[in-house]
Amino acid sequence: MILGADPLLTGPIDLTAVAIVAFKTLLVFVFLLVATMLMIWFERKVHGDMTNRIGPNQAGPFGVLQSVADGIKVFFKEDLIPDRSDRFVFKLAPYLSVVPAFVTFAVVPIGGVFGDGERGVVSMFGRDTRLQLADPPIGILLVLAMSSIAVYGVMLAGWSSGSKYPLLGSVRASAQMVSYEAALGLSVVAVVLVSGTLTTSGIVASQHVWNWNIWATGAVPFIIFVIAATAELNRPPFDLVEAEQELVGGFHTEYSSVRFALFYLAEFMNTVTMSAIIVTLFLGGPNGPALIGPDWVWGPIWFFAKLLVFLFMFVWFRATLPRFRYDQLMDLGWKALIPLALGWLLLLVAVRVADDEDWNVFVVMAAALAVMAAAYGLLVLAFRAARRVHEVEAAI
Amino acid sequence: MEYAVFAVAAIIVLAGAFGVVVSRNPVHAALSLVATLFGVAVLFVAQEAHFLAAVQVIVYAGAIVVLFLFVIMLLGVDRADDLDTEPLIGQRPAAVLAGLALGGALVAVVVTSTVTGAPRSGAEDSAGADNVTQIGRLLFTEHLFAFEATSVLLVIAVVGAVVLARRRRIEEIDREEPVTDLGRDDGSAGDADEPVEEHA
Fold first, then answer.
1. Minimal C-alpha gap between A393 and chain B (Å)
2. Do A392 and B177 touch (CB under 8 A)?
3. Could you say which residues from 170 to 199 on chain A have a Cβ atom under 8 Å away from some Cβ of chain B?
4. Fold topology of B1-81
5. A86, A160, A395 ranked by CB distance to B196: nearest
6. Which chain A residue's Cα is nearest to B191?
7. Contact A181 B61 (CB under 8 A)
8. Distance (Å) from the C-alpha of residue A225 to the closest C-alpha of chain B?
9. Of the candidates B27, B66, B132, which has its C-beta nearest A174's C-beta?
């Protein structure tokens, strides 16, 4: 029962079940590695197009094998460990970055038939199972847990390097990740409220076929989640962590060879994983109309189509948006996103209670909006007072 | 199967706990603490207390130890901390006493209790609700008062921390600028602007 309500694991566990789980694990592992490799190529190519460059075009057709070439190159480079580093932690940190990226993807449902009482179960080698590696009852909480573990990789990498720029970069990074985790979590709460379950398969099933959470939660949690996710990933415009002009390479300045490659891999893998999580939470995961052929074919197709949209979006962000300043970053996270996410959550709860109790929804919404406006006014007053204190302090 | 999980998790927990005490480097000690917390989370999962396991990782490993590390990193605690001087007088004998008492209590619990074979905490209730649902329902019905009291306590802690951290600066402001009443909440903050401009 550790892996949750997967029909494969509820009965007696025999060799077939173990083999299927092993096969799925391998599949997810290979898929994630290949997707990461392609994502690196995709990003360089699209970013190149957007900035009037060609991008990689030598290795393989359209330069698609460029990441393989880079990978081989990086393996043969010298692996440096700085003299003043903390050796054990220095070696540990890259793995703490990579492992959470893999684990998170395990809970993402890639396909399966949903709706009509079915919850994404498919037949595989004569056994019923889900097209997702694990379906734990805590589902989405595992994603949040892993994103909070990922902070360690960045933080320890910067500290153990024994050098100032990595330390500054990692302090920035961990402050940023911890701050945006709150907004991220609060927008996930809205999804859980609407879907009524924590399991990823349940969240997907509740969005069948067009009842996507992006409409059901009123789009605001979706926008907050995308912004907070970009910040969690340390991707532009929130890439202060490795702001080249200020911090050399940020937390991985001192890393080289395979260890650097692991950080690089983790970054892109996290981008793929986070896009998959966005698709699962807000865009119905593998839900979509089955056009021709058997139903189960269309789940993965829709899933990958939606995934691609978000991968492109992240590249687009990077190519077009200028980087935030540190104080702007903190202001956005703490003074805009968190209060907005909280307010919106309360609004959703109010509407839901009104629905249950047969109250007039419009009156409830008007009252909730009035409360939100009053709270916003108080918040603005508080910010103003705080700024005045700061100015006086700065003057002394 | 369950014994294997327990054995591995117990080894991780014990090794982590040992590391916390023995490590000379505070960062290594904090990391050992994370290992211990993870081991306990695995034990929770083995008992089908999934929610507790997730919260254990998110709150303790993900927030509290990160804060510990932050403080250690930013204060730059030296690797060679002097172990000869006692920072608090009488701390070490007291620690020995407390340790002995705790150990005695643990042994007493193990000796006096019996294995009952009662169903695990994660068992579904009669309505078929899983353990996360049950926890949620209990928290917001039967234990609502305790839940709200805890959140009030946390708010008080946050406000207290902010007040303690900022008080000195505001007292300095008051001393140097007797006209400015910014730190106090008596509504006369409006005349704050003039002295500021003088300074600037």
1. 7
2. yes
3. 170-171, 174, 178, 181, 198
4. Four Helix Bundle (Hemerythrin (Met), subunit A) (1.20.120)
5. A395
6. A388
7. no
8. 18
9. B66
Cβ neighbours for A254, distance < 8 A, ≥ 6 positions apart: A80, A82, A85, A90, A161, A162, A163, A166
Boundaries of every domain in chain B: 1-81, 143-200
Q: Which residue has the higher pLDDT, B132 or B184?
A: B132
* Cβ contacts of B31 on chain A, cutoff 8 Å: 89, 92, 156
Q: What is the maximal distance between C-alpha atoms in chain B? A: 77
Task: Please answer whether residues B46 and B6 qualify as being in contact, where contact means their C-beta atoms are separated by less than 8 angstroms.
Answer: yes
Tens-digit pLDDT profile for residues A235-265: 888 887 776 667 776 777 778 788 888 888 8
* Average pLDDT over every residue of A263-292: 86
Least confident of A146-155, B67-76, B109-118, B190-199: B190-199
CA nearest to A74, candidates A236, A245, A252? A252
Nearest C-alpha of chain A: how many angstroms from B161?
16
Query: A334 in contact with B at a CB cutoff of 8 Å?
Result: no
Per-residue model confidence as pLDDT tens digits over A359-392? 888 888 888 888 888 988 998 998 888 888 888 8
Band (B79; pLDDT cuts 50, 70, 90): low
Q: Cα torsion for B51, B57, B59, B65, to the nearest 10°?
A: 160
The ipTM assigned to this model is: 0.79
B176: chain A residues, CB-CB within 8 Å: 396
Q: CA-CA distances (angstroms) from residue A17 to A8, A124, A170?
A: 6, 10, 43
Question: What is the distance between the terminal CA atoms of chain B, rounded to a whole angstrom?
Answer: 71
Per the CB < 8 Å rule, is A141 touching B73? no
The model's confidence at residue B82, banded by pLDDT at 50, 70 and 90, is: low
Q: What is the mean pLDDT of chain A?
A: 83
Specify which of A3-17, B6-20, B123-137, B168-182 reaches the highest per-range mean pLDDT.
B6-20
Query: Which are the contacts of A233, defined by CB distance < 8 A and separation ≥ 6?
Result: A267, A270, A271, A274, A314
Out of A159, A385, A389, the one facing B27 most closely (by C-beta) is: A159
Per-position DSSP letters for chain B, written without gaps between them:
-HHHHHHHHHHHHHHHHHHHHH-SSHHHHHHHHHHHHHHHHHHHHHTT-HHHHHHIIIIIIIIIHHHHHHHHHHHT--SS---SS-SSTTHHHHHHHHHHHHHHHHHHHHHH-----PPPTT---TT---HHHHHHHHHHTTTHHHHHHHHHHHHHHHHHHHHHHHHHHHHHHHHH-TT--TTS-SS-GGGGHHHHHHH-
Using the beta-carbon criterion (under 8 Å), do A159 and B69 form an inter-chain contact?
A: yes
- As a whole number of angstroms, the distance between CA A140 and CA A333 comes to 21
